Amino acid sequence: MTSAELRRHLAQLLVVRGSGFSRDSQRRYPRWELTNAELKQLLEVGVGGVILLGGSAEDLRLRCAQLQLWAQQPLLLCADVEEGVGQRFEGASWLVPPLALGRLHGRDPARAVELAERYGRCCGRQARLLGLNWVLGPVCDVNNNPANPVINVRAWGETPESAGALAAAFVRGCQREGVLACAKHFPGHGDTSADSHLELPLIPHNRERLDTVELPPFRAAIAADVASVMTAHLQLPALDTTHPATLSPAVLTTLLRQDLGFTGLVVTDALVMDAITKAYGAAEAAVLAFEAGADLILMPADASAALDGLAAAVESGRISQARVQASLERRRAALQRCRPPGSASLNVVVQELNTLVADEERALAHVLLELSLERQGGSVPAAEVGVNLIRLDSQVNAPQLPAMAPALLRPAAQGYQPVLLDGRSPSPWSGNADAPLALDRLGSGPVLLQLLVRGNPFRGSAGGDEPWPQVVLQLLAAGRLAGLAVYGSPYLWEQLRTLLPPELPAAYSPGQMPQAQAVVLEALGLTAAALEGGFTD
User: Could you tell me the pTM of the whole model?
Assistant: First the structure.
């Protein structure tokens, strides 16, 4: 094999990041998303996969076709659409986070499993329709640590039993649509209080504990024939005192391949994450991951450097050509499982998607929202002058609060004017959590408090680092709390609900999207506003 042939083969094992938008100027995260020129060059030399984020459903369909044309070979096209394709691409279905079904599983296991399979089918069907052939889900982590800053409501359960049963159901539904699923983050990221996007978490548990808690959901997904498994950037001294799991032969080869018997694709979590880049260069990380047992290298910090490193490792004999061929064969086998999106025109695709979203999958979204809604008290009273205090997770480009969102318009129609705290705004309290509220910053009148808080990558916390209990108590003491709506973290809701008098209007949804806001506010007696952007349940 010539050097050029070797590089082209190895390039197939890289998955790089691109925007779902077609123009460079539209990129939302230019730190990670390659320019069109860079993408085109890499695809032309053989890079075999792209992970996409951003844009509408129509944008995604056009983008996938464009990338496939540039590559002139079958690509793995994937996205983190753990909560439905609409979580990342506007116009498709955006479903409540999986943990909602994990909690339902404790009350009605059969119903939860049936809905999880429909959930997976919805994700797979819409992904394929729009050009994706690989869904980076389900999350198989057991979220048994309420302080987990990055898994939280992304998990399918807080126990191994619920996480395993529901993740396996998702896999079945998704892959029946001809789209690959991916069990992540192996061997389990649920019991951490650190975010691997920012640092390397430590898992102190021994192998017996891993077998009891962390591994059962992955075993269930493997038994359901999941096509791929994604690694976690975690330090597990019980298995490897030197390398994080992503770079550890003891984790990826001995545990995953040999002990659990997994024969499909192993993909790294993004190697651009700080848990890796703080200790390893792009070439070294790619080589170590491949040596450990990974087949696909996701989002290396520098794709060209990663390719150079892999090629040098093969040419020196550090990595055998047989090992490369084994990974290439697993990639080919995975692609053969994919059902092509078809050649229908964009107009036909959009019409089919709109029909799905409006009919069958709207019904799924509705039942999930209704089953996961919790509420107490009566209706939020109208106010001549009131404050709609909204805490939005400090994310850029947050799609959950567009200009026409129910969380903004419905309270405004009842006299509550928005005060938005998005991580860049002044806090409504003084520096110390027990100090009186800085009420002058809020304005006068009753306060409707809406908290859009959950664990999210890069956030560094699960939302419990702000003194919301003190805020609630001080608003109650001042006689100014008119109602409470919590979207996202069930742990914050449970903490605050115990502080409320039973007659005070309050409601919770695990979802943060506009449709969840509509359901919550309807429960609080705030009906649709005339200008609302069509967000219904």
Answer: 0.93
Q: What is the pLDDT of residue 426?
A: 53
340 & 390 share domain: no
Whether residue 269 lies in the annotated active site: yes
Contact in structure between 183 and 215 (CB atoms under 8 Å): no
Q: Measure the CA–CA gap between 272 and 331, rounded to whole angstroms.
A: 22
Q: Which of 123, 209, 198 is nearest to 167 (CA)?
A: 123
The string of pLDDT tens digits covering residues 103-118 is: 999 999 999 999 999 9
Average pLDDT over residues 9-30: 92
Residues 442-451 have a mean pLDDT of 92
**182: containing domain:** 3-351
What is the enclosing helix (H) or strand (E) of 119? helix 109-130
CATH of residue 467's domain is: 3.40.50.10870
Q: Kind and range of the H or E element at 321? A: helix 321-336
CA–CA distance, 157 with 140 (Å, rounded to integer): 8
Residue 363 lies in a domain: no
Q: Do 47 and 178 share a domain, yes or no?
A: yes
Spatial separation of the C-alpha atoms in residues 510 and 497, rounded to whole Å: 15
Question: Are 107 and 22 in the same domain?
Answer: yes
The string of pLDDT tens digits covering residues 204-258 is 889 999 999 999 999 999 999 999 999 999 999 999 999 999 999 999 999 999 9
Structure tokens that stand for 404 in this block: 């026409």
Q: Using an 8 Å Cβ cutoff, are 288 and 247 in contact?
A: yes
Q: Are residues 335 and 382 in the same domain?
A: no
Work out the widest C-alpha separation in the chain, in whole angstroms. 78
Given a contact cutoff of 8 angstroms between Cβ atoms, the answer to whether 454 and 462 are in contact is yes
The catalytically annotated residue of 105, 189, 197, 243 is 197
Give yes or no: residues 29 and 141 share one domain: yes
The answer to whether residue 357 is domain-embedded is: no
Q: Does residue 103 sit in the same domain as residue 221? A: yes
Phi, psi of 345 (to 5 degrees): -65, 160
Q: Are residues 8 and 126 in the same domain?
A: yes
Contact present, 282 and 300 (Cβ < 8 Å): yes
Catalytic hit among 191, 240, 269, 393: 269
Distance of alpha carbon 466 from alpha carbon 481, whole angstroms: 18
How much of the chain exceeds pLDDT 70, in percent? 91
CA distance linking residue 68 with residue 71, whole number of Å:
5
pLDDT band at 345 (very low <50, low <70, confident <90, very high): confident
Q: To which H or E segment does residue 392 belong?
A: strand 386-392
- 197 catalytic per annotation: yes
